[in-house]
TrEMBL record, chains A, B, C, D:
Residues 87-170 form the Malonyl-CoA decarboxylase N-terminal domain. InterPro entries: Malonyl_CoA_deC, Malonyl_CoA_deC_C, Malonyl_CoA_deC_C_sf, MCD_N, MCD_N_sf. This is Malonyl-CoA decarboxylase domain-containing protein. It comes from Paracoccus broussonetiae subsp. drimophilus. It holds the Pfam family MCD. Residues 173-410 form the Malonyl-CoA decarboxylase C-terminal domain. Gene3D superfamilies: Malonyl-CoA decarboxylase, catalytic domain, Malonyl-CoA decarboxylase, oligemerization domain.
């Protein structure tokens, strides 16, 4: 660290300290320093790791995050490189801690080794998190990081530290579930509208239809540190019988009172914050919603999804056996989309091949190739029924030739199916899929 | 793990799974198994670390915590021994991960090493924390652990893992401050009464006096995962001038409207949960209260504590120089407690020796020996004035010969004093202490 | 109105107006005027009835109520005399309005007559009610008035106006019912404790027992204009079977979870504000509580009171027939209170005479003489069972020789019993009373 | 009342009673009776006035209001005729009560007279108001009534009773003011959008602009009996300087933080419920908003409206003097709307004539002819400045040739101006209007 840099650093601390003493506010401090944000964030991180007190840390963490918010994409990339290169581990520290442990392998030696093996950026991120509102800002920083990694995979190690800390901060016990209806604050509803990407909303009336009706529900998880930000939400339709297509769910006029419905359909599950990738709540949310609905609506007998199959079309096009190739060819002519008879003729084969995709196909990690299937099967659900054609939205036609699946959440079977899936990769499936497989 | 144990384990998993499928409830499950809690908790922890899904983990974590709640003190001790011996690190794993890293010192190798150096109990505690209400139960478990460590210091390493995780879970950003007044739920007030140990409350009227009056305030921090549990709270008296004794604060009739007060006195700060030892909020709480009060009451000029000096009497009795010995002897005759003239005669010497105790005395870690002094000085406060005799409560007479101190929180000086204390151990102090030191 | 008075009045208006323009506050205004409250309230009322705008009225109404609060009991009496004599009707206005109506009996003429027949104090009270917090102050003013009427019955007409307006303001639709439990603000709990007069509470632990337990509930009505003031509340015990004495209800340790109870016992109903006498909510409260409990606790089969019989002893002592005289004599020897055998011997006769008191005895208005009986029978309940001896509290021994009654609220019978009671004075009663009557 | 009618009535009571006993629900009851709503409402009102208890009254009142909701416009008209003819006063009762009073003119006699002079429909309305949600339904009933009166003025007397009762129920002390912002429930925001008629909203983004911005506020009054129904609301823009036209207010992009604004502009005040006509809250709302804003935003110096002049065009067209006729002619050519120079040329004369309209013109009741002027002047505001052209909306061009006025609320002057307006009809006005008048 050069002399000039050091001088700036001490000015920086001086300025922050002065500010707390009643001198002019943040804006002035920064103007006085007149340094670009890329320098300010470096300085602030450096100060944060030094020997200063908790209270100063809060102020410095605020400065750091404020500077981060001003960075250009390139500067962010540079900042992540800094995190990779200067806030990792120090090999010599590891070596000497390891030697000390080999010499006397007691608990203190393990703890000392732990401290030097944990990358320094974990400490840095914890200290940044002291600033008011920091948690959400760090989630968004990770979103930037995930983009940056796509360009430069060598940044990947940083993400492990983010993932580790976010999993701890977004502990399931800190989440609260709330039903979102027409009495929810508009500020939250607006976010719901923006975050719905599975079946996009067409403005406020569509939103209203999805949460203010007798036969619709919407539930979301919130975290105290991210306030009114819905982290994940699920949209539920209360129906009679299991639906076989998404159109009627999205477009049906409001139905009678919910007490008559026998089925709850989870037709859209959305993770709101890309920066929370891999910190999974969906499992908990679905189970808590099932618990709430079953205590409120005693007529409900069946909890089921109506889910997309996002990987089907790509997988199909990659298959080389004759049946798959023939099917891909047949589907490539869009005539079936407007001709029910044609669709009906194709259906048995679509089901047969799709059943194979869901039930028997495996990735190199011995998992089903479809991400939505992995999610619901991993939760203990059963692949209950293939529906084709079920979704004519262009994106659904492109990704899955219009195919959708009902996954069934049967309370009495969830644990056993879940264990079987986790242990042996067994895909629980219903009679329709079994039959289709046998074709 | 013997054969019989394994059989029980599989029964256990089976039983939990069966339960979730709609079979009889928890009580029945356990009765059916008819195993003592000490076995059940071992089994549950073992299952938790195995390859089971999130949802099963919640159920098993609940079982584990329920079993823990039934353990006798001796069984708890045995459980902690289990955590120490079976949920630490595996030396051979460390050795081979280290070798791999030495061979190819990249980020993946560091991550692999990190995973084996982190004691397994951290993972275990994280998984226990999935159960509803687990966080508070784990805090109480740590309280037990701290007791256990006093008997068996070899358990100490476990506490490092608790401390590490609790610091992350009780991140400052997850806390919310609330003013507690006479409109607070009785359920919270009841806890406040129980947790106040600095100046104990004499029942509901005393409580009411401390929080429903024009000239009193009480603020507490809460955490979403521990609900209505006040984690720490501070009691504030609004006065004219800095008080020199606690009696008038505790016993004064309600004063005029708060707008006339020029001083806010923090006269009692209580950490509620022993299991959160070392996870410090006091610093943040005091600063947030100062911010709130100064925005509400524009007449306030001075923020000051009236604090006990818990280590004074013991320290004095350990001193061997003539002045200290003479003072200890003089104070041992309780006559001064009822004779103001005698007290007045002793006062200069009490102040002189007490100033030495606060300002110049140091522990081996180069810190002031008094824990309350360390807290406030570490927050950036100044040791403003010694008050003697100031507290005639038997506990205060015993611990500090009735001595109290005002620590002054001067916003404009806090950062500088804090930095000086952290960096050099400098104890900021007022004119009265400076003068007393010179005697 | 003398010249001096007029001068004061104009000063008064001037002062209020000046105050609103930013001149010194209320205290100064009044000190400047240096007039006693009895003059100030007269002046304010006079101004209120004059031609001033709404905004000025709010300020003047505040002045009037502030002055009222300073009046001595004698001055209040004088103020009520003023209301009686100067804020009634003007005979000549009635005469001419009547003549005009006789001349042309159209709707306008009726309206004109209505205006002059309505005592002026109704307008005055409505305008006083414009001040913030006025409603509660007017309720308390009526409480004073009811005391004053006991000394001077000629004030009675004023009360009709109060009763008329309060019935309108405390319309049932404006009330909200809240469950009060241990999470209620202490400020409300404190009032509950003060207002409970049927079975007095012995401090906070007793209060806690009555509302924080699994087998106890407390519900209250609130009105938006009186804020946290519980207007009426009912205490409920959840039991197995109908209780026959109050002791076990008040002293029993907390029972198992409420779901097992089959009976809800309304064992204490308290009207909090004496100034709301005759504005009845009890009927609505009980029915709403029945509705809430039956939707929450599906095991409940029976809704019943355990009620005092406050008029029994006095009535008994006034009876002159041989049986009653003999019973009164027997009860006057307190030996039965400690000797169950003696009590058992007396019981058949106590029941027989008490059944007569409840079922067949009538006042000159053809109603049952007991006020509590009138309330519950008027609500449509049935006099279900006499319990003797059931309450050994001194007040209960004095008022009712320890007698209590269960009134049964049977949803399917309420309307019919209520109509029969209102129409014909029929007292619905259970088999035990029927049998006792026949003795 | 014919025999058949009586039979129906007793069936009706029977049916209601049966229902409460657990027999089939409301729908069935009515179907069983198979009577049209016009008969059912008559029967229910008749029962309500009879000798039945409070609890039955609630059920019957519900039936009555349910039947009312089914009436066609013609049937409503017939129902109002019933209220007029059968629920008024009984002349013979008035005569005999009057005679009794003349005979013995004491308080009881006045009370008796009062009872017979009050039209029976007041009692009826009070009893209808016992039903849950009745208050809002009665407000809507009055809205229907006001329409009906326009067709048949002989119904007018009924409205006096409605007005009398609603004024009492919607007492200012029962109202609560709430700020409505982007965190308000969508269900309320939707109503705000529907009720805004002064400057209509163009959908959700427009709504958001008006209440979620730094420089906009919206405040509303609510009543406990009408729940989430905003009774009246005012929209406020925070600006620098007094605005002279509505366009910039409605279309300006969001401004800087509110602390910089020195002026609060009340640019739209809407009464939501036509059925509350004459029950005025606007006065209280404006004053409470002024109080809230001045305590929150210390920079505010000026509270002013930007108000329409709804009666100007019609008044102008009715004037016969040369200047007015000439101005009307000049304005009738819309060229000025697109040609600033032409508008500038016309402005002095528009201001002169408009000043006359506002300041000197009087109705037969000696009030200014403009209703908005009457409202603000009656509140004590000053007609501060004429703005022309200020509003190019078609409705504003039609009603006021685009004229708007700023009324100034100057706290120090409000009372005096209000008193002068009420007492003498004096219109407080600013220098610009004074000058224009002199032209």
């Amino acid at each position: 660290m050069g002399k000039q840099r050091l001088a700036f650093l001490s000015d920086f601390v001086e300025a922050i300290t002065r500010r707390t003493r009643g001198a002019p506010g943040e804006a002035e401090t920064l103007k006085a320093l007149s340094r670009p944000p890329s320098e300010r964030i470096k300085a602030a991180c450096s100060v944060l790791m030094g020997r200063i007190g908790d209270a100063s840390r809060v102020a410095v963490a605020e400065q750091a995050l404020a500077a981060y918010a001003e960075l250009s994409p390139d500067e962010k990339q540079a900042f992540f490189e800094l995190l990779r290169d200067s806030y990792g581990v120090v090999p010599d520290q590891i070596r000497s801690a390891y030697a000390a442990w080999e010499n006397k392998p007691d608990a203190d030696a393990v703890a000392a080794l732990f401290r030097v093996v944990e990358p320094a950026r974990q400490t840095l991120l914890r200290r940044l998190n002291l600033a008011p509102g920091a948690t959400l800002q760090l989630v968004r920083m990770r979103e930037d990081l995930l983009s940056a990694i796509r360009k430069d995979p060598s940044l990947e190690p940083i993400d492990q530290d983010f993932a580790h800390l976010l999993a701890s901060w977004f502990n399931r016990g800190f989440l609260t579930m709330r039903r979102i209806d027409w009495n929810a604050p508009a500020a939250i509803l607006e976010k719901i509208m923006a975050y719905e990407t599975v079946h996009r909303m067409q403005g406020w009336p569509d939103l209203r239809r999805r949460l203010a009706a007798n036969d619709r529900r919407l539930y979301a998880f919130f975290h105290p540190a991210t306030g009114d930000e819905p982290l994940i939400f699920v949209e539920v339709a209360l129906t009679t019988g299991i639906p076989t297509a998404i159109g009627p769910i999205l477009n049906a006029p409001e139905a009678a009172a919910p007490v008559e419905a026998d089925t709850a359909v989870f037709y859209s599950i959305n993770n709101s914050l890309a920066g929370l990738k891999g910190v999974s709540f969906g499992n908990f949310l679905i189970k808590q919603v099932v618990a709430v609905l079953s205590s409120e609506l005693s007529n409900l007998r069946c909890y089921v999804t109506l889910s997309p199959v996002p990987g089907f079309a790509r997988w199909l096009s990659s298959q080389t056996d004759d049946r798959a190739v023939a099917l891909a060819k047949a589907l490539s002519d869009p005539a079936w989309q407007n001709d029910p008879a044609k669709a009906e003729a194709l259906r048995p084969e679509v089901e047969a091949i799709a059943a194979r995709y869901i039930v028997t196909e495996r990735t190199s990690a011995n998992l089903p190739p479809d991400p939505v299937a992995r999610f619901h099967l991993g939760n203990g659900a059963q692949a209950h029924r293939l529906n084709w054609p079920a979704d004519f939205a262009p994106s659904a036609l492109k990704a899955a030739h219009g195919l959708m699946i009902n996954y069934l959440y049967e309370v009495a079977e969830i644990e056993a199916q879940h264990e079987a899936f986790v242990r042996d990769g067994t895909v629980a499936h219903g009679a329709q899929l079994a039959e289709a497989l046998a074709r």
